[in-house]
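Study this pair:
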Amino acid sequence: MPAPEGPAPVVDAIRGTALGSAPVPLSVLDLVTVGSGSTARQSLRTSVEIAKLGERRGYHRHWVAEHHSMPGVASSSPAVILAHLAAHTERIRLGSGGVMLPNHAPLVIAEQFGTLEALAPGRVDLGLGRAPGTDGATAAALRRTDRLNEGADDFPQQLAELTRFLDDDFPDGHPYARIHAVPGPVQGPAARPPLWLLGSSGFSARLAATLGLPFAFAHHFSAQNTIPALDLYRESFRPSAVLDAPYAVIGVAALAAEDENEARRQVLTGALSMLRLRTGRPGLVPTPEEAEAYSFSPQERDFVDGWLTNIVHGTPDAVRAGLDDLQKRTGADELMLTANAHGGDARLRSYGLIADAYGLPDALQALSSK
């Protein structure tokens, strides 16, 4: 006879566990980049492979980020991508890093992520940002208004409305009291994804602290603001039913290769892609050959050199040392690694090499050794 079932194990929906010699849990931020000569279809297939590798090697979570009107990025629909990843994985946490809430009606997001929670119970995160994830014209098209600042300023109100929809607890007399997000509690006892606030400045850090929510900071493109924002979050934190102490993740651009020169070739493709985006020339991520042949002006070279200083890249041992140093300097509770390069093979290889450098377990090897 099977043993009687005991109580379900208590699983922390927010905090991860550091594996191997990693100082903190390691996770993946996937921008679903599309390189020159490739397609969105191929990039999405690579995302599945990265998620499967992450699950096998002990990465804690895999997040995708909402971007729009960027040829080099295919992550315009996080909920759709996450549903696809859920169908190809079993254990790794999946989430948005993030959904840009002012682009959407809160009820829509509550129903999308309620659906994801029903598809992948207990492993969905809902990370939220207040930026548009695109340029102003595209944001106006998304929001059907050109009053973009109004949407960002209303973020706390939108967040409160989303939370009410997720919990199905609008008070009597509220205009939405008879409206229910489905799937959701109206259909019976239901868990909901933990909420995270994302940011690249102090606004979301303070709001996350006030609400007692976990916080994810975009160090990969706002490195100068990382420590001030994390300090503000920790100093302002108020314990809540969600968290009794602050929990901060930072997004880190990191890429490992077998040798330093190859790592440099790969990250230069992402730097050139960002330069083009920042100067109004967005496109597919260039090949390493195209990036090496590009003639940078002095101003462009300054931008690229500055950008590369914030990317932890090199041999696996060098990347491990860089990540260890960054974690010590920031006190981050988790490192979420994004590998921005032209090709999917380079990104996959990087995540594998970093896992090896930290001695993360390989689930397939463990099974084969039994």
The chain is about 45% helix and 15% strand.
